């Protein structure tokens, strides 16, 4: 692998930054934005893919929603760049970085788009003791991984609250339509909090009891946040114990939330499967969460996504064990690299530069598969499914 800060020219770094932004927002969203700017309308297939990707129900809402994504992204990245610039004014910046402003913009976009690229040769390890890095970078990572539908819902909800607070006394408050927190938002926020807190606690307990290299709270918290989405690191991954790496792999597998810039099977997918198992154990006919029922079609999609993701993961890991059979790579390192690539995280045990050409191609294909997203692929492939001409009688089978 190449060092982004020293092995690429300034023009090359700009190109990488543009590709990060393009990948973060998504090819489909970017295509839709340019179509709207050119006055064109979204096609039926593109609209269907956008509905699954962004959780918006109508074409008119999608058109408005894309505008929100574009404005919100630029605003958050600009605020992040300003905060990072002020934070690093007194920091020791390598001589190969020509502009502190460009460095700040680069890391802000890289954090929000969950890319994990850094202009520093050691990523963010040099700032491991600087609490300001955690205070600025972590919110950018979390916001980028929440999903735009969640951010849009939260924005509308609190904007509605503010509007009600400042509304004129002459206007009846009942005339304003209520805005509620969607089920999607509740699940995403709950899963995000549980994974961050649980990941932090587990990393502290596991690493500090199974290895000589202990983690403090800020390091464990940062790695719990970054493992699911972005791939920044303030510690040496090879210094982690095997149980800690396995925990990181689980977090990378889960990933961020639907409609965001993170990879993985997504938090809502895991939540739906957990609730489905719970409902089955309680022998309930419907899958219920937060006093709402989840359609069986959604349950089927969740199971399909996890199956596809797992299938791709083991297939690519199996192929890597074949291409790297003459190397002395540890099996856990190969599994870690595969998980990181499929989750589009970017964390590494350091073996990727030493992979064979075939191995590097496999990693590239794995990253593309993770970026495309199993759900988007399923949506595109199944959009034109024809109804069955013959409906056969149902018959139960034994499973498990």
Structural account:
- The chain has 400 residues and is an all-alpha fold.
- It has a domain at 300-382: Helix Hairpins (Orthogonal Bundle).
- 62% of the residues lie in helices and 2% in strands.
- The chain has 15 helices and two strands.
- It has a two-stranded antiparallel sheet.
- The chain is globular and about 70 Å long.
Key descriptive features of the protein:
400 residues; mainly alpha; Helix Hairpins; 2 strands; 15 helices; single chain
Class computed from helices, strands and strand pairing: mainly alpha
As a whole number of angstroms, the C-alpha radius of gyration is: 22 Å
As a percent range, the share of helical residues equals 55-70%
What is the 3D form?
globular
Oligomer: single chain
Distance between the termini: 44 Å
- Report the total helices: 15
The number of E-state strands comes to: 2
